Amino acid sequence: MKVISKQRNSKMCFICGMDNPIGLRAQFYNMEDGSVMSPFVFKEAHQSFPERVHGGLAATMIDELGLRAMWAKELSEESFGVTMSLSVKYRRPVPYNENLLARGIVVKETPKFVTIASEIYDQAGMLLVNGEAVYIKLNPEQIVSEAVDTHAEMCYLIEDEIREIPFQKKSR
């Protein structure tokens, strides 16, 4: 699937923070179908049990895809919001130290709320985790104190040569 553009990364977010030493440092891409995608790798330090990523960390990626999907739909990083609800279904164990692909897409939107469907796939295209997040749209001032500059926090735009991300779901 064709990449339209790339989203910025933050300093300290667990999922996208480039300065977070224990984070994923995941990169996010706006795709031609209006979705957002992120090729990423969980680390061994993210395990709950040998050979398995902690389910809460998989859910964290599902949650991150919410705001990222809003940005992909709008092709803008000006909208903000917070998670109102999150449901996650674990389909298969999520491995660490393997290439994974996360995808999120807006499935419903009102002036105040947005619903996002998100998924994590293994490199063979098998669905590992899927979920739904409902975000309430808020201005940054409603989320954090005035002392926080959201644009200063989302300061990294890491250019690369990725112009297409292969994506093919496999049936169970």
What this model shows, in words?
With 172 residues, the chain is of the alpha+beta class. The protein has one domain (3-153): Hotdog Thioesterase (Thiol Ester Dehydrase, Chain A, Roll), CATH 3.10.129. The protein has helices at 55-74, 140-143, 150-153; strands at residues 3-6, 29-31, 36-40, 47-49, 52-53, 81-90, 100-109, 113-122, 127-137. The strands form 2 sheets. A 7-stranded antiparallel β-sheet has the order 1-2-3-7-8-9-6, with helices on one face. A two-stranded antiparallel sheet has the order 4-5. Strand 7 (100-109) and strand 8 form a beta hairpin. It is globular and about 40 Å long. 28% of the residues are buried.
- With strands numbered from the N-terminus, the spatial order across the biggest sheet is 1-2-3-7-8-9-6
State the domain count.
1
| Broad structural category | alpha+beta
Report the strand count.
Answer: 9
List the helices and strands and how they pair.
Blueprint: E1 3-6, E2 29-31, E3 36-40, E4 47-49, E5 52-53, H1 55-74, E6 81-90, E7 100-109, E8 113-122, E9 127-137, H2 140-143, H3 150-153
Salient structural properties:
globular, 34% strand, 7-stranded antiparallel β-sheet, Thiol Ester Dehydrase, Chain A, alpha+beta, 16% helix, 172 residues
